[in-house]
Amino acid sequence: MDTKRIIDQYFKMAIFDLENGESIDDLRDLLYDYERREQYEACEGIKRAIDHFRFWCVMDEIKTNDLTDKIQISFEKDEDNN
To answer: Which has the closest alpha carbon to 4: 51, 45, 47?
Structure first.
């Protein structure tokens, strides 16, 4: 099986787990376990799922609290690095 397919499978399994009540902390523990065993494709899939899930949690929070008018994105310059 190629690397991309392995990563995608772990991503999908981790998303499934998160949607069914698994906590991000539990997945981070699992990520650490796979890292210790040097199963880096599994690590990549799980990390992507955690990042994906966290992003959508933030987006849901923004929608729920009607904060969309307070978000400003600028592609002109990097404001963090003056």
So the answer is: 45
Are 33 and 67 in contact by the 8 Å Cβ rule? The answer is no
Torsion of CA 49, 51, 55, 56, to 10 degrees: 10
What span, in angstroms and rounded, lies between the C-alpha atoms of 56 and 35? 25
Side-chain half-sphere exposure of 12, counting CA atoms within 13 A = 6
Every domain of the chain and the residues it spans: 3-66
Query: What is the reported pTM?
Result: 0.72
Structure confidence by residue, pLDDT tens digits, 51-81: 998 888 777 777 677 666 666 666 676 555 5
